[in-house]
Amino acid sequence: MNQKEYIGKKIRELRESRKWSADKLGAMLEKPRSGKTILSWENARTEPDGDTLIELCTIFGADISDFYYKTPEYTYSIIALGDDRNAWVEIPFYGSIAAGVPIEMIDVEDTYLVPSKIINEHKGHRLGVMQIKGNSFNAGGIYDNFYVVVDFDDIEPTNSHDPFAVSIDNSTATVKAIEKLENGIRLLPNSYDPTIQPMTFMYNEYDDCGVSVLGKIIWTFAPFDYSF
């Protein structure tokens, strides 16, 4: 099941649970749609735009994440806070790092505590905390200004959905999935914002496409003062 199919399935499920007709749901929208359009969404022939999806959340009393299909490859775990100091390890905080600057050459003035479980699963690798700018992966649970733990020794994608910290033309770090091309690279968003589209970069004669893959994102967390 792809994302469009899941959105359609969820709309139908929520509509039918309220015993509404497709025409009734369409009439409830700020910009009314026909029942035919609603059924087109539900059958994944078309899909609502981002603003309409948010409006549907309000109508159904649902959360936007309810419409996001989590693929089987993703796993989630809850880590409980406790008094065991050994359960947490300090690792460097690199801020919103730019491309072209080797990790070992960046001055680190702060650290963050992360679960030792995360460290042990990536033992021997260079790990660090970064702050992400932008909402290119908010459908994957990584929002603007969130913090992520990055494995800087894991820069080769094995699929087209795992999140990586990347930097484009020395800008601040953002999150994209990566698709390797024969002579380039494609950066794939996972966002609720329909205006954020995949970006393709081709290598030039110097084997440089302006994209720096910083590392794979292995854990994410919100700042303590973050509010949705």
Shape: globular
Proportion of strand residues: 15-25%
What is the distance, rounded to the nearest whole angstrom, between the alpha carbons of the first and last residues?
29 Å
- Fraction of residues in H or I helices: 10-25%
Order of helices and strands: HHHHEEHEEEEEEE
Number of discrete helical segments: 5
Query: How many strands in all?
Result: 9
Strand order of the largest sheet: 3-4-9-5-6-7-8
- Structural class comes to alpha+beta
Low-confidence stretches: 72-83
The largest sheet is: 7 strands, antiparallel
The pLDDT mean sits at 81
Rounded to the nearest angstrom, the radius of gyration is 20 Å
Write up what this structure looks like.
The chain is an alpha+beta fold and 228 residues long. It starts with a helix and ends in a 7-residue tail after the last strand. The strands form two sheets. It has a seven-stranded antiparallel sheet with strand order 3-4-9-5-6-7-8, with no helix packed on it. Helix 1 packs across helix 3 and helix 2 packs across helix 3. It is globular. Helices cover 21% and strands 23% of the residues.
Secondary structure topology:
Elements: H1 3-17, H2 22-28, H3 35-42, H4 50-60, E1 88-92, E2 111-115, H5 116-121, E3 127-131, E4 147-151, E5 164-168, E6 174-181, E7 184-188, E8 199-202, E9 211-221
Helix pairs in contact: 1-3, 2-3
